[in-house]
Amino acid sequence: MRCEVCFRHCEIRDGETGFCGGRAAEDGKVLAANYGKITSIALDPIEKKPLNRFHPGKRILSVGSFGCNLRCPFCQNHEISWGPEAKQFLDPPEGGRGLAGVMMPEDLAAAAVQYRPYGNIGVAFTYNEPLIGYEFVRDTARLVHEAGMLNVMVTNGTAELSILAELSPYIDAMNIDLKGFTDRFYRDVLGGSRSMVMDFIREAVKNCHVELTTLIIPGENDSEEEMRKLSGWIAGLKDKSGSVTGKRIPLHISRFFPRFHMTDRPPTEVQKVYRLAEVARENLKYVYTGNC
């Protein structure tokens, strides 16, 4: 069976999972194997997503499952995101239990309502890559909307536009990683597709509030030239009417720290992050620095 979520288009045999670890073939269909399986849940400040210009000061019930269709060597959530490592949530040792809890869409929507008195505005699908389990996002987000609350998605943007179209009616805001602006970085370091992410962002800004994040990694995506190109591309993005509104799209520029499989380089210099933010402000109105 062929998975149609992202550029990989994995051919999956019955009973097996795809590259992401979160989609599986069963009875002749490719399904979300992580549907309703929750590894992380917390009531977070909305700014932690990060979303600085979407209901600032509010909180949001953040939830994650397992699996991801990229292989970022600096991943801070690799225990739940990387396919081989996340396998413990899908296939526990013999005689053991899976590490994921179960929350169906109606359970999560009800929890969102329960936490409304504490400043909660809805649900954020985050921590791992939510697009690989888009069916759960869609089904939950529909119920959250019916309860009069909002939906946020924190994503790497690596999915076909048909997946985005299915989710768009229910998603109110996204933070999308634009991890760099070269094909080499996306292909060789992340195992991804820059063109797919750019197409996803280009369409997403027509449908909901979007903020973008770029993590600055020494020696990889930290040149002023690349930041100038990246921010210039963002500035040219258009809304649904065709008007160029990209200059108002917030960009979060974050500092890298050595972790996971990328401990061979130092943290990004704080002054480097600040300088790249200045470069981005040549093209964009709202630029924020993080982890500094």
Characterization of this structure:
This protein has a domain at 206-292. It is 29% helix and 20% strand. The protein has helices at residues 78-81, 83-90, 105-114, 134-146, 161-167, 183-190, 194-204, 224-235, 270-280, and strands at 23-26, 29-32, 37-38, 40-45, 59-64, 101-102, 120-125, 150-155, 173-177, 209-216, 251-255, 287-290. An eight-stranded mixed sheet has the order 4-5-7-8-9-10-11-12. α8 links the parallel β10 and β11. α3 crosses α4 and α8 runs parallel beside α9. The protein is globular, with a radius of gyration of 19 Å. The mean pLDDT is 94.
List keywords for this structure.
single chain, 29% helix, 292 residues, globular, alpha/beta
Measured by DSSP, the beta-strand proportion falls in 15-25%
Order of helices and strands: EEEEEHHEHEHEHEHHEHEHE
Cα(first) to Cα(last) distance is: 45 Å
Biggest sheet, strands in spatial order?
4-5-7-8-9-10-11-12
Structural class: alpha/beta
Question: Globular, elongated, flat, extended or rod-shaped: what is the shape?
Answer: globular
Rg result: 19 Å
Q: What count of helical segments does DSSP give?
A: 9
